[in-house]
Specification:
Layout (H helix, E strand, L loop, with lengths): L14 H12 L2 E2 L11 H12 L12 H15 L9 E4 L2 H12 L5 E6 L5 H7 L3 E6 L9 H7 L4 E7 L11 H11 L5 E5 L19 H4 L2 E6 H4 L8 E4 L2 H14 L5 H10 L4 H4 L1 H16 L5 E2 L7 E5 L8 H12 L1 E2 L1 E2 L12 E5 L4 H11 L3
Parallel strand pairs: 1-11, 3-4, 3-5, 5-6, 6-7
Antiparallel strand pairs: 2-8, 7-8, 9-10, 10-13, 12-13
Amino acid sequence: MIPVISKLPQTGTTIFTTMSALAAEYGAINLSQGFPDYNCSEELVELVNNAMRNGHNQYAPMAGLMALREQIAIKTEKLYGAVYNPDTEVTVTAGATQAIFTAISAVIHPNDEVIMFEPAYDCYAPAIKLMGGVVKSLQLEPPDYRIPWDMVKRLITNKTRMIILNSPHNPTGTILSKHDIDELTALVKNQDIFILSDEVYEHLVFDGNIHHSMARYPELQQRSLIVASFGKTFHATGWKLGYCIAPAYLMQEFRKIHQFLVFSVNTPVQYAIAEFLKDENHYLGLPDYFQQKRDYFNKGLEQSRFKLLPCSGTYFQSVTYNAISDEKDTDFAIHLTKEIGVAAIPVSVFYRNNTDRHILRFCFAKRQETLDKAVDRLSKV
């Protein structure tokens, strides 16, 4: 056996794979991994089938089907007032995770420092490390997980190359405010710092709030790579289709990596979504749709011993279980899966040093009967 020097020696199987497998093994209700248990639009499925039958089964252009890129640009301008050139500033990707990896690969060099906020989606830090970059993480504090901008300022050095933001935020369900935007704008002014903005839950913002996309603010837009996901938006996570938008000078570098990573992505799905996007109601109704699910799930959990944390976006609800157990969150999540029959994600896995504050994350993008069964079981804990 030839010795292998691992590039990610501390990395194993993701917690999402682990908990979903455990849920399947024990027949538990899977509220861990972030995917719906209901089907996507039948109209969208038919559009994919039509594209296949009409012969759209070969390679798409490297940057994505122009018809889809045009619809992405139209949607972005409608929502945020930002104009992107579909020819040079929009690229279709094989999901958001690929877009995030590509964006980091495009601009991060050895010893470049990247500021990120924990708890954080687990693909950020490994991508930074693979590029030889240095992770500078800042832990956010529950229950509100607000960014302490005075502490962010202290992290910035002449090696700081990127700040990664995620709003609406996975796993906490928090969103950026206008105050955050103002602080960020002042922070990066006259600095050579890029922004990677993970906006895959852009349409899942609740309680009358708005999504503060980097695209809304010209001074931030010009330094930002913005990532989004059709899988999250249209309940089809298995299709792995997303995109990145960025000014042309950044997109040029993004595509240099993209063309050798995947080259192009699923052609018939691109045709289908290009057509589906022409009706803006397919995404404008999502905030109300998911807020109803959040409220329904939370009303049920109010009868339990779990304590709800604030949730302003995404389809994840975080809870504390201090009134139930003093077990580590990883152990308690396994216990909950095996003994109670509900799988959740322990939030400590979103920290590089596994900070444990006895918090679990549930996914409420489920059918009502699934949520009813889960609440019934959780209320008995």
